[in-house]
Amino acid sequence: MSGWQTLLRKEVLRFWKVAFQTVAAPIVTAMLYLLIFGHVLEEHVQVYDGVGYTAFLLPGLAMMSLLQNAFANSSSSLIQSKIMGNLVFILVAPLSHWAWFVAYVGSSVLRGLVVGTGVLLVTAWAAELRFAHPLWIGVFAVLGAGLLGALGVIAGLWAEKFDQMAAFQNFLIMPMTFLSGVFYSIHSLPPFWQAVSHLNPFFYMIDGARYGFFGVSDVSPWLSLAVVGTAFVLVAALTLHLLRIGYKIRH
Amino acid sequence: MSAAVRFDHVSKRFDTPRGPLHALQDVAFDIEAGEFFGLLGPNGAGKTTLISILAGLSRPSSGRVAVFGIDVHADPMQARRRLGIVPQELVFDPFFTVREALRFQSGYFGIRGNDAWIDELLAGLGLTDKADTNMRQLSGGMKRRVMVAQALVHRPPVIVLDEPTAGVDVELRQTLWAFISRLNREGSTVLLTTHYLEEAEALCGRIAMLRAGRVIALERTADLLKRASANVLRFKTDQMLPAALAARARVTGRIKQIKVHDAYEVEQTLAALRQAGVVMEDIEVHKADLEDVFLDFMAVQPTAEAPA
Description:
Chain A has helices spanning 4-16, 19-41, 53-84, 88-91, 97-123, 134-158, 162-178, 191-197, 201-214, 221-245. Chain A is mostly helical. Helix content of chain B is 34%, strand content 29%. In chain B, strand 4 (62-67) and strand 5 form a beta hairpin. In chain B, helix 3 runs parallel beside helix 5 (140-152).
């Protein structure tokens, strides 16, 4: 019997006990985006043939919420435990860096999936969604949440104060998610910004997931899978390394 | 049989903007299985740094630490199973109840179905009626008890308490020491740091004193007490002492204590006090206690050399 299951369970309960704030709140936020952007732009923007703007927007919103909450989960859990000091109870336990990784990233994936699914459920009335390739949806949802959960671990280890964490979130995570094509197809951008968007790994997560819904996307889902998969492997390797050396948590 | 805890020439250097700080310098001693061992020293002497290294929270700059022969850095998983650490800072997880916190802590050590032992810990530490209370709602003293229980969920053979009674009430201290003494009698090794020298004197069979990162004394408590060459004249007064006596006195509010070696010195001191017009109450002469020995050590021993 090993400790990783307990740590994973604890991390899941941590967000579930405050689900109003960690699950319900982001779903409400996504609904507000939908009401405003959907209402304003439905008549004016047509992205793919036969797909209304609101229908186009929904998968992007669900993915954006999923990614942001996966990041928020591991990062806030770690920084809170560091600042409260209760991380010590985990530090003195015989838990390997793999146990930490599975628990913090796994709970983040779960929270991301719960929020993402919740967004789809409460916004389903707004437009008719297709699920052209459900497997692709699942692949990009899990990989994307895993990538952001691991990034959250890195941010949580690195940040020493809440404002450093806020900076990481506001200056890195938020722009990258917002500029990833949640609200528009990057084909509508000028060539320069199209090229920039192609450097943003978040674009491939959203675009890949959208392929799963509509069967159409800006780039091939295989390219998206390659980019997101590679990014996940790199970030996961860095996360495991930092956990193994106890970066900023063991002196 | 290897020692329960072996500090093998442990040094720890911190690089600060003002140059290197030698928090620990060549600390070397063993704690044998079953001992109740005290680690004393003023603030900043390096006690907590030493315990952090033992706990694997910090790495030594040189030297090694082993628990029952297991190197805490080469094989941290096995070492941590043998250690129960109660950290000095009062910390808790605000999301959970006392019982949940203890079940999680058991789970981290791979232990399921630990409720019988958890109940025993709760009873032993006077926490039974708080089992289902959220950690946030507990008083500081109660949180401290939970921290002790958390350190003991896996029945560690070595229990490390870093100033567990700092700022807690008398009741907790007594509950805690009764429980820890019982575990010690049943075979656990205990390493205690405390500011309450009375506690160390009462509980610890052997004591190491640290100052400025160095071990300056390592002896059986009884032998340490024997080294106190003097007796102590103790009395209460509201008045200032004459300068010559004030320099030699240990002052705790109204209570003044002056070291005396023989009856002649007692008479002389009392005469000097009377002459200065000092009105004394509750005069007594008693044997020096650990606090006197401790103060002697801190005052007499040479200070650590300047950082290399």
